[in-house]
Design a protein that fits this description.
The chain has about 375 residues and is an alpha/beta fold. The protein is built from 15 helices and 12 strands. The strands form 3 sheets. Strands 2-3-4-5-6-7-8-9 form an 8-stranded parallel beta barrel, surrounded by 7 helices. Helix 7 links the parallel strand 6 and strand 7. Helix 3 packs parallel to helix 4 and helix 6 runs parallel beside helix 7. The longest helix is centred in the C-terminal third of the chain and has 18 residues. It is elongated, with a radius of gyration of 25 Å. The termini are far apart. The model has no long low-confidence stretch (mean pLDDT about 95). Bound molecules: 3-methyl-2-oxobutanoic acid and zinc ion. Zinc ion binds next to loops. Pathway: Amino-acid biosynthesis; L-leucine biosynthesis; L-leucine from 3-methyl-2-oxobutanoate: step 1/4. Belongs to the alpha-IPM synthase/homocitrate synthase family. LeuA type 1 subfamily. Its EC number is 2.3.3.13. It is an enzyme of class 2 (transferase).
């Protein structure tokens, strides 16, 4: 039996803190219900101390969903933890996510403190959260730039204090995959009690490495991934849920699985993009407009002969009905014939050759050729009405 990787969705917390992406409580409830249908294991519903609306959203999301664990974020501050515990009171399954900066940048410039005092605060916050809930996740903020020996001390101390999940965020998106993977391996090999907790990857995409780093973490023993729909999140975003879910589904060789029902991915991507007014880049992996669109002649010919010549994923698996063959001036005769057949014109090869020359002139002039353009090409005009 393959190992399970827990999917912790933070679209409604790390994603929602992006300027312009704020959602109302009813909108958050709608997204949370869809996340439940998608099969995420944990929903990070908000940061309750941050505003009355965020506090209320965590309450309402807790009431609205049943299966996923509802998680609330805090700093290592007692008042934050009190607020989080109160906001989680209706959750059927609940988790407090507390933590503190662990890198020397944060310790020196953010907290104006020292490593030992920060370690004490980490342990105290974990113990305090533990008074309210059994399930406590601890984040070592900026772990990506934290010295591994010190990180291991912090992780060991919070596990001893009761943390059930230890989150190793690459907060600034700094790490290389080898480096992040080695960090997780180091913790696995050097922290006493590490097998009593789940290691979680929380990566940011500043250098475009969030998914690669998350995968490196998982391949080195992490069993929870912190992700968002469409990879939305602070600055360049977070690791995208759809990418990790489809990597694990496609690469049977790594022998890991998630609970994600991938057929719901595309609908949720559209919903989040629309609600958060955040367009998805056309070439975004899995859910971008061009993710299953073939436009060059060689690729089109290959896909028409056999889909898997140029597709490693089945679009239906992520809820996209089919791949598309786009007609442009780079298209070949196979693509033209494919579309003419689809429109009901079964032309002899010689006739396709003739039409192809006219098609190329049209495509050069128009960039994209539509069904109506093809009908005009064959019939001379569109039918009446
Ligand atoms: O990026 C980060 O470090 C975070 C933590 C608060 C988990 O979002
Ligand atoms: Zn983050």
């Amino acid at each position: 039996m393959s190992d399970k990787v827990y999917v912790f969705d933070t679209t409604l917390r790390d994603g929602e803190q992006v300027p312009g992406c704020q959602l109302s409580t009813p909108e958050k409830i709608e997204v949370a219900k869809e996340l439940e249908i998608l099969g995420v294991d944990i929903i990070e519903a908000g940061f309750p101390i941050s505003s009355p609306m965020d506090f209320n959203s965590v309450i309402e999301i807790s009431k609205a969903v049943s299966y996923p664990i509802i998680c609330a974020l805090t700093r290592s501050v007692e008042k934050d933890i009190d607020f989080a515990a109160d906001a989680l009171k209706y959750a059927k399954r609940k988790r407090i996510h507390t933590g503190i900066g662990s890198s020397d940048y944060h310790i020196k410039y953010k907290f104006k403190s020292d490593r030992e005092k920060i370690l004490e605060r980490a342990v105290a916050a974990t113990k305090y959260a533990k008074k309210y809930v059994e399930d406590v996740e601890f984040y070592c903020e900026d772990a990506g730039r934290t010295d591994n020996e010190y990180l291991a001390r912090m992780v060991e101390a919070v596990i001893k204090a009761g943390a059930t999940v230890v989150n190793i965020p690459d907060t600034t998106g700094y790490c290389l995959p080898e480096e992040y993977g080695a960090k997780i391996k180091f913790l696995k090999e050097n922290v006493k009690g590490i097998d009593n907790a789940i290691i979680s990857c929380h990566c940011h995409n500043d250098l475009g490495l969030a998914t690669a780093n998350t995968m490196a973490g998982v391949l080195n023993g992490a069993r929870q991934v912190e992700v968002t729909i469409n990879g939305i999140g602070e600055r360049a975003g977070n690791t995208s849920l759809e990418e990790v879910a489809m990597i694990l589904k496609t690469h049977k060789d790594v022998d890991l699985h998630t609970n994600i029902d991938s057929k719901h991915i595309y609908a949720l991507s559209l919903l989040v993009s629309k609600m958060m007014r955040m367009p998805v880049q056309p070439n975004k992996a899995i859910v971008g407009r061009n993710a299953f669109a073939h436009s060059s002649g060689i690729h089109q010919d290959g896909v028409i002969k056999h889909r898997e010549n140029y597709e490693i994923l089945d679009p239906e698996d992520v809820g996209i009905p089919q791949s598309s063959i786009i007609l442009t001036a780079r298209s070949g005769k196979a693509a033209l014939k494919y579309h003419l057949d689809r429109l009901g014109y079964s032309l002899e090869e010689a006739r396709v050759e003739e039409v192809y020359d006219d098609f190329l002139k049209m495509a050069d002039a128009k960039k994209d050729v539509t069904d109506d353009d093809l009908i005009i090409l064959i019939e001379g005009s569109l039918p009446e009405g």
